[in-house]
Amino acid sequence: MMTIARNLQQNGIAVTIFGRQIQSLGAWFPEIETLDDLAAEDLTAKLAGFDRVIQMHRNKPFVGLEQYHPRVSFLDHICRVRSSESMADRLAKFCIDEFGLAGADKSNGMTPPPGLQHRKYPLRVAIHPTASTADKCWLPARFIRLAIRLRELGFSPEFVVAPQERADWLYIERFGLKLPDLGSLDNVATWVYESGWFIGNDSGIGHLASSLHIPTLSLFMRRGIARTWRPDWGTGQVLIGSTYLPTGFLKERYWKYMLSVRQVSRAFEQLRASLSFA
To answer: Does 105 fall in a domain?
Structure first.
């Protein structure tokens, strides 16, 4: 959504973004006003001063948002359209088609605060083993085996999970693997920005890494989902776990078992090689 916000802002249109997560990243978007989550009881009063309201999905975070403002745009149709373009490109196209912003592009304007060094730790591989839903997650044991293999190759793999997930992942420290306690999303962004690489499931942290131009390897259950939701700001590769499974049900249920540590390790080597020859 910050792609839309940046393109509007670049064309002289004031934008305010509501959301707890984006507010925690406010220092990374210095030109755009970011505020905390909206409460349902405050919608009428808080939205009254805006000419247009944009929400990604019709049913979340608010159902019936059009009852609170006369000009609401929903973007569900962009998610569903059959296209080989990523969501980043589709959102840029939306800015052109909907708002007539001829120079719109997919950049979201994310800018590191002063004092940080891009890829300061070139051997650190940020591993994000969780996602918004369990069906998007590769097997934990295989993430651990992958991390051990990377360590044997001279890399420094470290895991990143949300604060509420941390207790479930502390056991990886028994394998000598690191699980830094990063806390806020702002700290996560700083840590990712100074990492050398990123490997993870289809998740928001993968998009964060891509926005920060960290080379990204993303694991997806299905090709169609990957085509739409692949991180598409920096250099990255996508690995599909269900390529040889015949039906949607089987793809979603068994992709994580079909995807081996060897395949992911090989894809990571290909990502490294693509940068070496760039």
So the answer is: no
Rounded CA separation 111/108 (Å): 9
Does residue 104 lie within any of the structural domains?
no
User: Do 85 and 192 sit in the same domain of this protein?
Assistant: no
Same-domain check for residues 169 and 90: no
List the structure tokens of 131. 């996602």
CA-based nearest residue to 3, from 238, 225, 235, 232: 232
Q: With contact defined as beta carbons under 8 Å apart, do 191 and 182 qualify?
A: yes
Give the residue numbers spanning the domain of 197: 122-276
- Cβ density class 142-164: b for 16+ within 10 Å, e for less: bbbbbbebbbeeebbbbbbbeee
Q: Tell me if 108 is assigned to some domain.
A: no
AA identity, residue 102: A
Phi, psi of 160 (to 5 degrees): -130, 125
* Main-chain phi, psi angles of 185, to 5 degrees: -65, -30
**Rounded to two decimals, what is the model's pTM?**
0.93
Amino acid 159 reads: F
pLDDT in tens, 85-142: 999 999 999 999 999 998 999 999 999 999 999 999 999 999 999 999 999 999 999 9
CB atoms within 10 A of CB 133: 10
